[in-house]
Amino acid sequence: MQAAPVRATAIPSFTDALRAVESLLMSGGQRTARRNAWTSVLEDRRRAKDRFEAQRVLEEFTSVTP
Fold first, then answer.
1. Distance CA 24, CA 46 (A)
2. How far is CA 39 from the centre of its chain?
3. Sign of torsion, CA 32 22 37 54?
4. Which residues of 4-32 are buried (b: 16+ CB within 10 A; e: fewer)?
5. Rounded Cα–Cα distance for residues 31 and 10 (Å)
C-alpha cells in the first residue's frame, strides 16, 4: 500500500491576507490612491528624519566653532 502524497501549501503572510481583503473591498483606483498615500507618509517620515539629522549636525558644528 502506497502512502498518499503530502501537499504543502504555504500559509499566507498577514500582509498577503490584508491585500486580499483590500482587493475584495476596494476598487482598483481606491487601492492605488491608498498605496500612494502610504508611500507619501513613508517619504515624509524619511525627509523628517533627514531634516532632524541635518539640524543635529549643524548645531554640533556651530557649538564647536568659536
1. 31
2. 7
3. negative
4. eeeeeeeeeeeeeeeeeeeeeeeeeeeee
5. 25
Query: Which pLDDT does position 52 carry in this prediction?
Result: 97
DSSP label at residue 61: H
pLDDT of residue 2: 67
**Average pLDDT value for residue range 48-54:** 97
Three-state SS string over 1-19 comes to CCCCCCCCCCCCCHHHHHH
CA-to-CA distance for 6 and 8, rounded, in angstroms? 6
Q: What is the pLDDT of residue 65?
A: 60
User: SS3 for 3?
Assistant: coil
